[in-house]
Design brief:
- The protein is α/β, with parallel strands linked by helices and 454 residues long.
- Helices cover 31% and strands 15% of the residues.
- It has helices at 3-23, 74-82, 96-105, 109-112, 128-134, 154-162, 190-205, 244-247, 268-276, 285-315, 347-350, 376-383, 396-400, 446-450; strands at residues 49-55, 83-90, 138-143, 176-179, 214-219, 226-227, 237-242, 322-328, 354-357, 365-372, 412-415, 437-440.
- It is globular and about 60 Å long.
- Residues 28-44, 400-405 and 419-454 have low confidence and may be disordered.
Length: 454
Amino acid sequence: MRGRDGEGARTVVLAALVLLLASTRWEGAKARPVAWGHLSAGSSQRARNVVMVMCDAFDGRLTFYPGNQTVILPFINLMKRYGTVFLNAYTNSPICCPSRAAMWSGLFTHLTESWNNFKGLDPNYTTWMDLMQKHGYRTQKYGKLDYTLGHHSVSNRVEAWTRDVDFLLRQEGRPMVNLTGNKTFVRVMEEDWQNTDKAASWIRKEAINFSQPFVLYLGLNLPHPYPSPSTGENFGSSTFLTSPYWLEKVTYEAIKIPKWPPLSDMHPVDYYSSYTKNCTGQFARKEIRDIRAFYYAMCAETDAMLGEIISALSDTGLLKRTVVIFTADHGELAMEHQQFYKMSMYEASSHVPLLVMGPSIKAHHRLSNVVSLVDIYPTMLGISTSAAPTLPHWTLRDRTLNQHGKRKRSDEMFCDMGYKREKYQKAEEWEERMLTQFLRHDQRNRAQAQLLLD
C-alpha cells in the first residue's frame, strides 16, 4: 500500500480483523481458544496450518509494557489480544546465522558449531519444515533464511578472526539515521514488502485450494539496520532508515536514553564490542534518541508486514485453522551499553519476541516462563502431530506445563556466542574470549540477567 489511502485501508482491515477474531470459533476449540498447553499435544482433529513470520533484530521487550509504549504495533497487539505472548523468549545466539541455525535445526550453537555469520548448517540439513513436509504438509518459504554455510561478506570472516588476536579493528560504520521519502511513503524496505506480497498472494491463490495442511515461512530483513555504502562493501550495516510515515508511529517522549559508564570502566568484552561497532566516540543525546526512534519506526514497518499476512489468512477464511507465530532471530541494542547491532548477551540483544495465535491457543495470555528459539523445532513437529526426534530441550508446551498439566517455572536456557578455534575440540577447553555463556535467568532476580557480562 502507498500513501494516506494505505493508512486508511490498514485501519479498516485492523478493525475488521478485531471484529472477526472476536466472533471466531477457532477450529478445534469447543467454544473459544483453549489452553496453550494443547498446542503441542497429538490430536485426531484436523491438522492445523502454520504460518511463521520471522524478522531480524527485533527487541522482544517492545511486545509488552513498558517497551510497547514507545511505538504503535497494531498487529502485534492483535496477536497479544487473541493469542499468547511469551515475556521471556530468548535467542540461542545473538547473531543472525547461528541463531537461525539453532531455530531450524533444534540444536544449540555449541552443537551446530555455527559460531559466526559465515558458518551455518549444511544446505542439506533436515529442518523441522522438511519433516513436516514428510508428514504430509505443503510447505513454502519466502524471504530471508540465512541459516546455511557460506553466506555474508568477507567482514564476517574477518570478525571471527579478530576475536583471536590481540588488537582491535573497526568493523562497522558509525551508526547513523537516514530519513527518506515523505509522510505518504510506506514501502521503505521494498525487498521485504515484495516477499510479503508473494507470501500473501500464495495464501490467497494457492493455500486456499489445498486439501492438505500447509506451513508457510516468511523471513524479513527488518528491523535490521541497512548497509552503509560509504563504509565499503566489507562493512556491516549501520544505517537506521525510515520514512516520516513510520516515524509518526513513535512516541518520542517515551524513548529512554541509556546511561553509559566511562570507557575506562567497561568490561573488556563490552569495550571490544563498542570499539568494533564504532561506538566509542562522542554521541549527542539527540543523536542517540534519533537512532532509537528510527529503529522503533522500522519495527512499526515490520509490524505492518505481519498484518498483511494475518489479513490474507482472514480474507481467505484460513485464519480460524492456522497457528500464526511471530518471532525474530535476535534483538537490537540501539545504543544501549554504548553499542548498536547485536552480538551481546544483554537483554536488548538477546531478548526476542514470541507471539502465538490460533486454534487451541489461549487468548490474551501472558507467559513468563523462559523459552528460546530451539523450542520451536519440537513445537512445530508437535503441531503437525509428528514424532519429534530426541532433542536436548522441550516443546513450548513442555516449557509451560508440568506432567499434571499445571504451569511450571522454567528459569534457564542456553545462549552461546563466540568463535571456536579449530584446535579446541571439547567444551571444557574453550577459552573465556569465546564469550560462551550459560544464561541462568532467575525470575526473582531479573537484574542478574541484565548484568551477565559484569
